[in-house]
Amino acid sequence: MQSISKVHSRYYLAIFVLASATLSYQILITRFFSVMLYYHFAFAAISLAMLGLTRGAMEVYGKPERYAPERVGVEFARHASWFALSSVGAMVLLLCTPLIVSADSAAILVLAILAFVWPFTEGGICITLLLTRLPYSGGWLYAADLLGAAVGCLGVIFLLLVIDPVSATLWIAALSAGVGWIVVWNSDEVRSLRLSGAVALTLAIAATVHTGLDLTGKSHLGVFWAKGEEQAGTLFERWNTYSRVRVREWAGKAPFGWGLVRQSDARVDQHYIDIDADAGTVITRFDGDVGKLSYLKDDVINAAYLVQPVADVAVVGVGGGRDILSGLVFGAKQIRGIEINPAIFEVLTEKFADFAGHLERQPGVSLVNAEARSYINHSSERYDLVQISLIDTWAATAAGGLTLTENRLYTVEAWEDFYRALKPGGLLSVSRWYDGDKHRGEFYRLVAIAASALQRNGVSATELRHHVVALNVGNIVTVITRPDAFTDLQWQEARDRIQAQGFKILLGPDVTFDAVTSTLLSDKADSAFFDSLPENLAPSTDDKPFFFFTSRLGDLMSVNPWGGINKNNIAVSMTGLLIIAALLACGYYVVLPFLGLARRMPLSTLTPPMAYFSAIGMGFMLIEISQMQRLMVFLGHPVYGLSVVLFVILLFSGIGSATVGADTPGPRAIVWRVTVLLITILAAGLLTPLVTTWTRSQPTDMRILASVLLLAPPAFCMGMMFPLGFSVWRRHEALLPFFWSTNGITSMLASVLGMALSFQFGIAKTYALGVCFYVVCAIVIVAGRRLNPIGIPAAKGEVRTGLLTQEKAAS
Fold first, then answer.
1. Which is nearest to 742 in space by CA: 132, 152, 134, 150?
2. Cα angle vertex 278, ends 274, 283, to 5°?
3. What secondary structure letter does DSSP report for 646?
4. Which of 809, 668, 659 is nearest to 721 (CA)?
């Protein structure tokens, strides 16, 4: 038996640092893609990383002489240096290329693959070398890999609070090359030592200089082009894991409005805030005179103030403070502004506070940096109006499972939360995009959500029309709902005020719009009705929180059947393209090598480990994505969702991996481990929705504790499975890189398939599918342990030819 002591401690440090750097770089790429391209390209970064890691593993597998055990140190140092250089090079190429892009530009995806798969390939070679070419050390090396990834996930979040992403990339690259130097520093490999040292030192100097330029506000390397437009006139810029927030000059003096019924002659000073170079709002110069802002009464997003008098208001999504100003104009006594993004909060309350008139100091106004549902759930405050005006930053609409934020405002359960925060007779006002016959999907879905939430609140289906009002100006629709029915007198007075203002009434107690909305506000809106519609307009729920996506799984490549292209559905189409790409990658990196091996090895020997490592890749990723989606809103911040969920899963998976020793466990130990695994992941799947419902009003620290308790046991057990498989099948030593690459490429498939399945079937069923894959793992490893007893040495006469390794079975 090979001993754990034969692996030098520097290799544990090496795999820890490379895993941390790889995951940090992946997160940084999502930020660059989000700003410069579109959010669905950001989601593609996950697939690019996994594809690169798989290519690296196959490189090691296909060249066993070059990557022999005695060359681990020198090859690691060389490829760590190339990871550092290529990661910086790809970033610089992206920043300095004036990309002219469209939301559905496939050419950009090809460019991203060519540029960014390379550094991940280099990182994949490094990690595969350490996991498969060193003496077997039980689960300790894999544990160091997972712990490094966990630290990288958490570390980059805090790093972006201090420095810009370009500086962060340079520091990560310097650290990667530096650990390569550590691996070979006392060896005779002078060339590798010099290369690693030179790269690490050069990048460290560049990182120091660039960080200093950024912190002092001087010109430095950054985003010069974003979504095809030059980034000029920047007054302020702040990056974080939510977004890049930029304040720029606004030349026009005409008042900015979303749905103005008439253009005002007033002239105001304004700055424009753009979020990841796409979504935007304005900061208006305010000197305390609300009379200068009377044009805000002409914006349909403020129509709720005309429906009935409002004293206490909750504004979800403060942005540049425009809705806060609207509350002041209409005479609201208490205004609570809730803003999730700390960078926007900083813009409004610090950097441009004087320009904005220090809104947080205005009588009755208070601002809080929090996620709306979380804040409302654990707050005792009650309001006459909860206003949600066009809240989406594209971080939610198209980034996929890792950055769902605003989607969680547009679910049935969210509206139930908001209804509970209303005083008797209070209103919930939600404004979204609308374009007549070309873009009705969001309007219909708002009505569907309202109908479902009101019915859960005790309103009968036949009375729904007395609780819903929809108003329109231009391409904006505002849907106003009230848990208490409008009386005839209340509606008559409200209708007179609305019509006098010039807003178009689409829905009201005595106003119908079309057959679809009439059915939605009746007892006929059953599953058969929603299935009959050309788009998926069923009310979005916390289990299916994809409000913006109306495509079905079967028509991912289609456009809006009502005549216009739904920009959000392009992201769904990108998911379809990624699924196709992942399947092709599986065919190239898994199926073809498997078929070649099958001609040289018995299927009974080859199939079990292949099925096992494939099932681990699918199961781990499906469960991880599902839990992240479920706990995002529960924890209150997408950063908490990323840091807590991903960090806890990786951390406890690493701890679980470390429990697998260098000696192969006996049959009873294997059965015990897989039994505990299945029990814990089943229990977590059943308990998560119950626990999150019971504790949703608890303080943040208690909700984090509840999340950790839900995640830690299954993560601990899932972490045991990979090193356990290596232990059981380590007799096929030459195939270990292939097994590692199989795990990586199936994880890539699961990352995009999990999103598509969540779109169609919901998060709970996607989680259940992940459990099923672990059932396959359990069956395969228990059966494989019996069919292939451990301790048999590698077959003699092993022949390596290209990608394929021939293993001759001992007679």
1. 132
2. 25
3. I
4. 659
Distances in Å between the alpha carbon of 641 and those of 15, 242, 701, 757?
A: 25, 12, 13, 20
- State the Cα–Cα distance between residues 478 and 300, nearest whole angstrom: 7
Residue 77 has pLDDT above 50, yes or no: yes
Q: Which residue has the higher pLDDT, 782 or 38?
A: 782
806 pairs with which residues across the strands?
799
Condensed to tens digits (0 to 9), the pLDDT of residues 736-779 reads 899 999 999 999 899 888 888 888 888 999 999 999 999 999 99
Where do the H-state alpha helices sit in 133-189?
140-159, 165-184
pLDDT digits (tens, 9 = 90+) for 286-336: 999 999 999 999 999 999 999 999 999 999 999 999 999 999 999 999 999
Phi, psi of 685 (to 5 degrees): -65, -40
Q: Report pTM.
A: 0.85
In the DSSP assignment, the letter for residue 139 is: B
Q: Is 264 exposed, middle or buried, given 0-12, 13-18 or 19+ CB atoms closer than 10 A?
A: middle
Residue ranges in 636-735 assigned as alpha helix (H): 638-640, 647-658, 667-694, 700-728
Place of tokens 């599986």: 586
Over 90: is that where the pLDDT of 39 sits?
no
Give the pLDDT confidence of 212-228 residue by residue, as tens digits: 998 887 878 888 877 77
State which amino acid sits at residue 113.
Answer: I
Cα gap 324→327, rounded to integer Å? 5
Token reading at 607: 């199939």
For residue 287, the Cα-to-chain-centroid distance in whole angstroms is 39
Contact 95, 87 (CB under 8 A): no
Collapse the DSSP code of 436 into the 3-class scheme (helix H, G, I; strand E, B; otherwise coil) and give the result. Answer: coil
Pairwise CA distance, residues 168 & 86, whole Å: 15
* Structure tokens that stand for 129 in this block: 């070398």
User: What's the rounded Cα separation, in Å, for the pair 355 and 367?
Assistant: 17
pLDDT the model gives residue 794: 38
